[in-house]
Amino acid sequence: MIPAALNQKPQNLYADRPYIAIWEVTRACDLACVHCRACAEDTRYPDELNTEQALNLIHQIAEWKVPLFVLTGGDPLKRDDLMLLVNECSKLGINFALAPSVTPLLTRDRLKELKESGVHRISLSLDGADAPTHDNFRGIPGTFNRFLEASRQIRDLGIKLQINTTIGRHNKDQVWNMARVIKSFSIDLWSVFFLVPTGRAQKKQALNAPETEEILNQLYDILGMDWFDIKTTEAHHFRRIILQNKKVKPEEINQAIALNPDPVLIRTSRGVSDGRGFVFISHTGDVCPSGFLPLPGGNVKKESLAGIYQNSSLFKSLRNADGLKGKCGRCEYRYLCGGSRARGFAMTGDVMGADPFCAYQPAH
Q1: Number of C-alpha atoms within 13 angstroms, CB side, residue 143?
Q2: Sign of the dihedral defined by the CA atoms of residues 109, 179, 41, 55, in that order
Q3: pLDDT tier at 197 (50, 70, 90 boundaries)?
Q4: CA–CA dist 283, 293 (Å, integer)
Q5: How far apart are CA 167 and CA 147, in angstroms?
Q6: Disulfide check for 283: which of 7, 48, 103, 109 has CB 3.0–4.6 Å away?
């Protein structure tokens, strides 16, 4: 899907439905990650969506025709009814993916069962180029080696593999080495998250603006190696980096795509961000702009998901790039980027405030 006329303030591009919906099926998880936005524990929360409510949510996703649905956690494998939920997604023809934690629960037999139930894409997390870095970040020794084994098993079973990485002070010097580690798994996508100080994550773990800019440029160089595709989460200014390197002005992106339907430009043109093409449903049913921006616009136990996304004042404001403040509001890339609203809120207390980890100075 290529948005039309990005130079005409596309606030309503995702007014009716998001491009991606992510559901935190549970907060229970057997890892102890130092950055966990969910502050996950090893037991399930009693007020999380029950099976009936979960199935109702899945049916809403299907009727709404959301292009991509992700079941995440915590660890989805901690839910006893996970296979029922997966089978329902498959039966309804939903394009969905699963993001389990790498723990002893993720066995080859379970992976085979998931594939037979219709799971075609799984994402795993790698947060260091070596075992000490990754295991220290994830809080459990041996997790790095389990990641390597699970990745091999997923590829051997013919399941598409996505690797998620959280970039922070712990691994900022390992970006290229991590890319080399995951290159051997023939992954479909490297999804790089830039740490937001929410949940257990602390401000001291996050990078500053110049460091973020440096790593975004490294990611662009890695993208040029054609090893795998790369997208960023809570670092939307990677889209600016892409356009600057390709010498495409933001108002010229549709014309550039028409001349050359480059998949990287097409994804850049979507301009998906917190609350704008993206919606997050928590384990208890709260509907938030993202998992890193825990401000609920409503709850699916009481209202429809579509109604909350379309009508909540919070979501409406996030879809209005002209309401951004500071340099984000003056930036010529605000319709494609707009900065991380989650980081703006976490660092300044203002959900529309400028992203403090962007080094770019607008041309105006």
Answers
A1: 24
A2: negative
A3: confident
A4: 14
A5: 17
A6: 48
